[in-house]
Every structure is written in C-alpha cells, then in structure tokens.
Amino acid sequence: MTDNFDKSTIRVMLLDDEPFMLKLIGRLLENLGYTALSSHTSGREALVALAGPIGPPDLILLDLNMPEMDGIEFVRHLVEQHYAGSLVLISGEDERMLAAASTLVQAHKIEVLGHLRKPVSPAALAALLAKWTPPAAARSRAAKVAYGADAVRTAIANGELVNYYQPKVAVTDGRVVGVETLVRWRHPVDGLVLPDQFIGIAEAHGLIDDLTRVVLRQALAQTRAWRDAGLTLRVAVNVSMDNLAALSFADFVVAEAVEAGVMPSEIVLEVTESRLMADLRAPLEILTRLRLKRFRLSIDDFGTGHSSLAQLRDIPFDELKIDQGFVHRAWQDETLRAIFYASLGLAGQLNMEAVAEGVEDQDDWDFLRRTRCDLAQGYFIARPMPAADLPGWIETWDARLLEQTPALIVGDPLA
User: Which domains does the chain have, with CATH numbers?
Assistant: First the structure.
C-alpha cells in the first residue's frame, strides 16, 4: 500500500503529446504527494531520458495516441530495455481499445496498474495509485527464490507442504458454503513459499502427482475435522491434468475419501488444464468415474487457456468457475460484463453452479449481488488462511454482512 513508502522519492514519467495534459496530470500527482516528475511530449524524447544516467522511472503514465511514436510502439521499446517498473495507460480511445492495450502490455510482463480515459479524473488516478506498491519496494520485501526439483521433492517427502483454505460464499445471502484448498510450502529457511514458486517445478519434473496426493490427504482429513466440529463445508482441491494421466488416480481418490470418512459429495475436484492434452481417454475415464462416485467436478479458470467449451461438452462438470479476469471490474467494463454474463448464462443452461473468482472489492461484490451468480470468492471476502483461522473468520464475515451488505437486488439493470 502507498503508506509503506515515501511518495516523494518515487520517480514518475509523464508521456503525452499535449503540454496542457502534462501540466494537468502533473498537478494531480503533486497533490497526491508524487513530486519527482519528468514530462515528455514525444516517445523518442522519453526513450533518451530512459537511457540517461538517472535510469528508468518507477512509474510511467503513458498516452496511447501520439503522433510519430504511439504508445504501443513505445511499450515495445520498453520491453527491449527490460523495463521493470509499472504503467498507467491514458487515452481518449474507447474502453475496449484501452483494455486491449492493457492486455498487450501485461503479455510483455510489464505491470499495468490500470487505464484512464481522458480527461483524467483525480479520483480515478488516486484510486489506481492507492493500491500500488512500487516494484522496487515489492522486490525488497518479497524477493523470489529459484527452487530446484530436488528441493521440491524434499519438501514433499519431509511434510513441509501445508494447506491454506480460501472461503467460497453464496452470493444471495453471503453464507459460507465451502473453501478452496491452496497449498503452501513451509520452507525451513525461507518461511512460507507461495505455489507459483514450486507448482511449475513439480509439473515439469514429474512431482505433481505426489504433491497432489499430499494436498488431497490433508484436505480430506480437514474436511472430516470440520464436520466433526459441526462445520459442514464443500472442500475443493485443485487437480492438474497431469494427475489424470494414470487410471489409478480415481481409485486413489475413492480410497482416501473412505479412509478419511468423508462423503464424495463434500469434495470438489477443480480441474485446470494448463496445457492441451493430446489423448483425453484417461482423463475422461477418471473424471467420469469420480463423477459416478458423486465427487463434484469443477472447471477452473473458464474462458482462459485450454479451459473451454470443448471441456464442457466432454466432461460432466458440476461447477463452472468464471476466471477472475472476467469478474473484477466487470461492473464498469462493458466487455468484461458481456463475457461474465455469457459464462453465467452457459452455466445456467447446463445446470452447473457458477463461481465468480477474483472478487476484489466492494464494487465487485455489489455487482455480483445484482446477478444470479451462485458462489463467489476473492480477497474482498477473504484471503487464503490456515484451517485453524476459519471459524473465527466466519464470525467476522457474518458481522460484516450485517453491517454493510445492501439489500439483494435480483436482475442486474446493467445486463
């Protein structure tokens, strides 16, 4: 958050071919406490400054539509210079053009805080920057370590993996109905390591099956413990398509559930297809058998990667998770809203439960409350937490609902 660093030391570059606009945005930034500003009216001038002795800025506010060198071309030069800062895109173009430009920049692995329409609103600019942590500050607080396959293999063998759980709530009344299991690595030296630092390693080196089995066993035991304590929840566990290559996986899941004393209907298997499977026979057999045993199946990150209509056609899913990229800010973005409603309608027509991922703020939550979406999860509701923290969080969440959730409005006027 912005309170964790000195704004006056953050270097900000403004690039716009209109001198008046540069002065206006500069004044807005100064009012917010950002005083280390440089302004440029052309891309070539800005590139010279980037290569100068001061070095690249922490943040660039970039106009897309400029003569000579437009903003998209300028971004290409930033990539060539390995720019590691953040961008805010500014333009008078329509929302879809801004969204397309944002997607392109993110594909180049440059952080985009968001995009602003001209004339720039002081409130909108302030809202974007309020959620920003400068990349240099973020790196100093959470430098990522490169782990090898042997380290991940040791972590699995030594019981260093621990499950965290992110709640899923019913949109209609906020009732907590389930959790998603998200694995963490309790590293003996580096502390808690997030999955993006080791899941890919596990998949690349044939360790994902062992990892998933550890996560599933823990999740089943926790499901039973919660039920014994009077808390009945659906517990979701992520399953890689790599787990579905061996037909024995279905028997393993069934046997572990019986051993734990857990009903299949209490478990949701969330399937994410990170790569296209050349042969669907084994995955289809495994998932169909598990569905026959009454385990619930969920298609994760729907609309991205290889999670698509073909999977809905071929596999008997119970649940469709609408990717966070189509949920967050859908209340104000016509394109996102159209995709969200198309996914929601598809789930309804196929008698599937719809889960909205990426509910990040009050606006996202209020938007969902005006829709017929079934379930929601995201940081606005709760971050992933240890199992022991869940009962206390439920009490806090119930209190929040009583204080600030608006009356339910069925049927979104924006649809």
Answer: 2-141 (3.40.50.2300), 149-404 (3.20.20.450)
Q: Is 400 left (phi over 0), alpha (psi -120 to 50) or beta?
A: alpha
User: Going by C-beta distance under 8 Å and a sequence separation of 6 or more, which residues neighbour residue 320?
Assistant: 298, 299, 302, 312, 343, 346, 347, 350, 352, 353, 354, 355
The DSSP bridge pattern shows strands 86-91 and 353-356 to be unpaired
Q: Is 357 exposed, middle or buried (0-12, 13-18, 19+ CB in 10 A)?
A: buried
Averaged pLDDT, 124-129: 90
Q: What is the C-alpha separation between 364 and 361, in angstroms, rounded?
A: 5
Tokens of 57: 């800025």
Q: 342-355 burial string, b = 16+ CB within 10 Å, else e?
A: ebbebbeeeebbbb
**In whole numbers, what is the pLDDT of the chain averaged over residues?**
88
Q: What confidence score (pLDDT) does residue 6 get?
A: 74
407 CA to centre of own chain: 28
Three-state SS for 206? coil
Q: Which of 328, 371, 386 is nearest to 167 (CA)?
A: 386
Total H helices, total E strands in the chain: 15, 15
Q: Prior bond to 195 cis, omega within 30? A: no
What pLDDT was estimated at residue 141? 40
